[in-house]
Description:
The chain is of the alpha/beta class. It is built from 6 helices and 4 strands. Helix 1 packs across helix 6.
Amino acid sequence: MAIKVTFVCLGNICRSPMAEAVFQHLVSQADLEQQIEVDSCGTGSWHIGEEAHSGTQRVLRQHGIPYNHIARRLSQNDLFQAHYLIAMDQDNMEDILRSGSTQAEVGLLLDYAPELNMHEVPDPYYTNRFEEVYRLVEAGCIGLLAHIRKKEGI
Ligand code: 4NP
């Protein structure tokens, strides 16, 4: 059974779809597609059914990262099926933990990149700083993949 990694933000149009695409790209480059499944969702429902924000699509395109995701909301299935639920900020993390019980490792993406000395991915929906967010997301995803490979022995 594949290890399931689900990234979580508020709207599921800016940060978590970016993290999903970047992490999926790293997984593919490492030839781990059979072992690791990647997804994302949001804690809010405003953008269900939408494509990623144009800013997220732009930075992914600029960095040559394929993207394919439609926004959806965090569900009980996610809590049940995910092995890793990775939040972009503290509010997302609290919302995940409030939604129900889970066996998943629940963590903040940037805690997997301690060299950054940051804990939260700032929301580009309000700042429009998509490139800065890309750098943070990329560092977090690299650290997360190393953590998962070590923990899972893959
Ligand atoms: P995200 O950004 O959580 O990174 O997808 C947001 C997108 C939409 C809203 C807030 C944050 N919103 O309030 O609609």
